[in-house]
Amino acid sequence: MITELQTERLYLRKVKMSDSTSLFKIWSDPNVTKFMNINCFTDENQAKDMIKLLDELFQENKAIRFSIIEFESNEIIGSCGYDSLDFENAKAEIGFDISRAFWGKGYASEAIRSLLDYGFSTLKLNRIEAQVEPENVNSIKVLQKLNFTFEGTLRQYERVNGKFKDLSIYSKLITD
Asked: What pTM did the predictor assign?
């Protein structure tokens, strides 16, 4: 599995421990983590622990997370990746986050488009899906822009801070 992707404005590379300070800044913003299945980070060691976990999943060929670097500023502006890879069933689940300062500039859809291209062409995936809280309007707009299909609601699918939350499931097939 490759560890780098490139788009017109972005460089995506596998997260590494030296990214912890930049990713901590993003993952400690409650506006960014509001709809993520993590609590807002309060200490950079949490980012280091997350990177370590992501590296373990990568070593097991179960996931890969990329730091999203904007060419112009050479700044890490978010992360994205395959949160789970299931090669037996040729499918993956994607996830992404963008620093609030870079919202609304098309970076999320540009990064996800590269994941789609790589997933379908190189990894030979048949299905790429995303699970999103119904209130996460911005992420839903990204998925709609990329022609994902809304499949339905997974009722009370995830427990967040002691409360069960619904998740909307979106997918894109290689044939779409």
From this structure: 0.89
